[in-house]
Protein 1
Amino acid sequence: MHLNGKKILLGVTGSIAAYKSAFLIRLLIKAGADVKVIMTDAAASFISPLTLSVLSKNPVYSDFSKSDGSGEWNNHVEFGIWADIMIIAPATANTLAKMANGICDNLLLATYLSARCPVYFAPAMDLDMYIHPSTTRNIQRLIEYGNHIIHPEDGELASGLVGEGRMAEPEHIVQEIYRSLNGSNDFSGKFFLVTAGPTFEAIDPVRYIGNRSSGKMGFEIAEAIANNGGEVILISGPSRLRTNHPNIRMHFVENAAEMYQLSLEHFSDVDVAILSAAVADYRPVKSSDSKIKKKDHDLILHLEATQDILASLGKIKEDQLLIGFALETDNEIPNARKKLKNKNADLIILNSLNDKGAGFDHDTNKIYFVEKDSETEFDLMQKSEVANIIVNKIKELI
Ligand code: CTP
């Protein structure tokens, strides 16, 4: 992965994850980037400016005035103009709150406010802070302003608690930067439909039949296409994920019927459809208008089949490219090939639940391309990398 000559401005704020900034800088420098670091005072309690200066091969900035006593100032506007990309990692709840509200009481925040380049932020905090409504609202607002989030990961936190809030690993952050800086225009003028996430089929006003799909794979695919200049209609079932990519038109739906309707509406406008959603195959025949009360006998739910979106698009497709997914537990390749044929798709991307780290709710995936006369197996990799492989395959097929 090369970032030769790319100018990267790294903002470091006061979280224990600041130690990861050292690794991040090393990876960026190794990839050939030119890195300048701005730290908040709180960050300096977690990692020394000297460490980051040695690794970045540049002075580390934290004050508006230069530390050499010359009375000159560190020009935040110039930093913002200099950078090809600004990344704030780790980004604390405090800094995110200030960014979301236009507060600029330190050099890092003033630089953020004046930056003209894309800004990425990698939150790092304890899980309760991360899911606090104020943090959620601040992040949402930052995304609405056009900034990009690099989602934290689930895992053990410095507090000993386990959950979401751990800063993304430096390798992952470098991948995001790489993708952002190395987009192409190969899909310029082309239109894409992507479905993502689970569907929720209502049983009554409070209960539903759903599944564990997070939507990650579909969102990654949509972003990878958009980074290559394609225009994307992204139809997602209920998911916490968001995107603010200017090339992506986002629609959220609740259930299979809504996803079917919208997909059908848009299909004739697109060149390629990639159906990665985990659509429910069955829904309750009738969802109750009021909450179903507990009785002292068994409850039998009568389910009916939903429309198969992939198969329906397969029936009406003209010269469009139609790509489906298959999640299998056994007899994987033959089953995927059956879906390819029965649903009239051009490519099935197979996940096997037997592969560790693949499928729902992981950041990684292991896929196979199943085509009419061939199949290709790939190693386990980050979903963002999988998305790039799928994008390259689409380039080959259209
Ligand atoms: N799919 C769809 N509409 C449905 C069900 C599935 O569009 N109602 C799509 C999925 O988005 C995916 C592909 O069909 O691209 C295969 O989904 P999968 O659930 O693996 O296949 P099913 O046909 O539902 O078969 P089964 O669950 O029996 O394996």
Note: The chain has a mean pLDDT of 92.
Protein 2
Amino acid sequence: MNIETIAVLGAGTMGHGIAQLGAEASLNVVLCDISGPALERAMKMIEAGIVIEGRTIEQCRAITGRIKGMTSIRDAVRSAGLVIECLPEDLELKKKVFREIDGICSPEVILATNTSGLSPTEIAKGLSYPERVVVAHFWNPPQLIPLVEIVPGERTSLSVVDAAVEWVRSLGKEPVRLKKECPGFIGNRLQLALLREALYIVDEGYADIEEVDRSIIYGHGRRLPVTGPFLSADMGGLDIFHIISSYLFPVLCNAPEPSRLMQGLVEKGDLGMKSGKGFYDWNDEMRKKTIQLRTETLVHFLEKDTSKG
Ligand code: NAD
């Protein structure tokens, strides 16, 4: 695989971070957004992100110099060896854009989507070359989280999956490969299973929001960077986990609808940090402190990863 240029479609939360990763890995990056102001914002965020990482001015210039902004998708994908789509999570929009680029990119160009959980088979439907469509699901912030889930659709070829895994490794990320697609892939299924149970505990009045968060931060969450659910179970003893499963599985939340608590907040426009209110009240100080703490912790883990190997 010899990819020199990538096109990143969508310069929002995920697109700008993936563009930065590509440029840091010495790729030429065409960053495309329908909105000029969004492109300008993205370039400013990339510059700020590189500075935080402690690069010299020359290194910053070299990285940003490899990123070219564009507002036309057709022009953006023309010279790309790989396209990574980071458009809003809207199946019809993604299908429309994939149909458009299918006719422009030569057949060996990989068309990757950063969808959080939509079906790659659906996205690839009706394309001339559906075998080159694959999910490469980066996690936010993509500069600091190693995981990228690689998910094939029903018609994705094995060589495209292999190439996507190789590309993700070349960016310094940790690819996790699914055998076949499922809604939400692995990461969002597990994340949302935890959120559903957390909401249920609060909804049922068993504990307050802060206590639920604290129980993860100071308990289960402390182990998670080292041991996933299977390693944790093995280390705790499968006999114990089996007994706990037998009395707990029947009473865990299995609600098929989103939580009423969260729905009520969304209807009021309380969307969390971005609107100033959600489960918590977000003033400027709390926002800055939480982002800083999260960044420092994620950088600490990245440094540990690097020293491992
Ligand atoms: P976002 O809303 O921040 O960015 C989307 C960008 O796409 C915007 O800048 C918008 O102007 C641009 N856009 C919209 N229509 C366009 C078009 N027709 N042509 C070109 N540009 C267009 O979205 P995001 O949070 O970066 O999410 C992008 C994708 O990544 C989604 O599929 C999302 O589910 C997935 N994702 C998001 C996160 C997250 O935490 N935000 C994490 C992982 C995956």
Note: Residues 284-308 form the longest helix (25 residues).
Protein 3
Amino acid sequence: MNVAIYLPSETKTQDWIRMMGELMPDWNFHPLTAVPDPEAIRYAVVWRPTTGCLRPFPNLKAIVSIGAGIDHVLADEDLPDLPIIRTVGTDLTQRMKEYVALHVLRHHRNMPALQASQARSEWAPVVVPPATRRRVGVMGLGNLGAEAAKCLSAIGFDVVGWARSPKTIDGVTTFSGAAGFGDFLDGTEILVNLLPLTDETRGILNNDTFNRLKRGASIINAARGPHLVDDDLLGALASGQIAAATLDVFHVEPLPSDHPFWQHPQITVTPHVASLIDAPTGSRIISRNLRAFEKDGTVADLADARRGY
Ligand code: NDP
Ligand code: OXD
């Protein structure tokens, strides 16, 4: 079986070819840009493929996203209409739970204020309510969002969650659809975004959303940069409607060095590391998925391209 692999970095592509080859010695892995026989390629394993790069392979059976999101695959305007398999698992969920818990607690306990006091050698206690009186809203209750919401609830937060379809999650009050969005936002003080990027969710972190939150709320965006309207966040921080934000993802990555987010005192920037699956773990999941798909055309982690996630 022949597989083409593409990542924007040539070194990473070679690493993945080596690892996949070790796990599946009976399959052949090639860099997508140097395939000896394009007609022999059955699968493409990709991260941020360039437009049209999958067209030369007429016998492709499926595309594998090296990641949970498939927006980077759907961004290819000349994408063949094929099943898209995402790469998810307990490793990815665990890492995202850690990131969300870390930053929610950081905003909840107002660590930035304590750090600023320390920088001034100033003993300035900050008293905050217990987690039970702090409402955290999680947007997206899929693979990552549901587990993050459960983890926040286990810490003791008053957790609300929002998804497209109705959900029942122990310890989490849930809302669904456009009709439930306003009620979900009302009273929320820390908003965590774990939605996929689709036509419906692009730009959802905007002034209308910020204005529904409790004044002085915090935003954590660990999903995709284009969910956020950057200028709306800067305005809401200036007005005090939003007190602080943690941003892991950006419209352009790496975040350009002159972007105002870098030096903003109320913004914490992390370089798309909320839940980066490491290559050894990711390659094991992908090898399992490739074998399952090849066996009978089914795999649990199939995305729905028409829905966008
Ligand atoms: P899933 O597909 O498992 O879950 C998506 C959730 O979002 C579902 O609950 C879905 O609702 C909900 N949703 C989708 N569209 C809407 C909408 N229009 N309105 C309301 N809810 C909606 O995704 P994952 O949890 O696996 O991942 C989420 C995203 O996180 C990825 O797409 C990716 O962009 C990002 N990510 C970021 C990482 C990082 O390191 N920063 C790492 C990994 C992922 P329903 O359940 O009803 O379908
Ligand atoms: C993903 C990501 O989608 O790392 O998995 O962003």
Note: The longest helix spans residues 90-108.
Protein 4
Amino acid sequence: MILPILHYPDVRLRTVAKPVETVDDTIKTLVKDMFETMYQAPGIGLAATQIDHHQRIIVIDISDEKNQPLCLINPEIIEKDGEIDWEEGCLSVPDYYQCVKRANHIKVRALNQQGKTFEIEADELLGVCIQHEIDHLDGILFIDHLSKLKQKRLLEKTKKVIKY
Ligand code: NI
């Protein structure tokens, strides 16, 4: 099922998501719907927050063929080092791209969609994408990392488009 994606400046994007306690059938169905929604958008990552569901779940697929689905439940960054500038976009902030500074290399611990703990090391696009999606679970958008001036311009542009 394709789920509607919240758009900035919707305040629900600011919700801090709660950990998943049990990876049960409800969660598995949600993960399936999140992948479907992400692929259809199309996007390379989606956090549950973006579909107004406030549990710590993210789905990612950075492959060109869209055949490498990665699901992280309750993800935790356990190591990070280096620094990288990467141009980011977001399904919740359509048609807007800016460079953001992130850790270049991260190690993440999470549960997979079967509820099993695993660890993954990531850098460049995948590392950036995981950091971007974990931010969503904490109510943070990539634009929060930009200068106040850029944020103000974006908000003005957005208000014009949706005509408050
Ligand atoms: Ni995003």
Note: The chain has a mean pLDDT of 96.
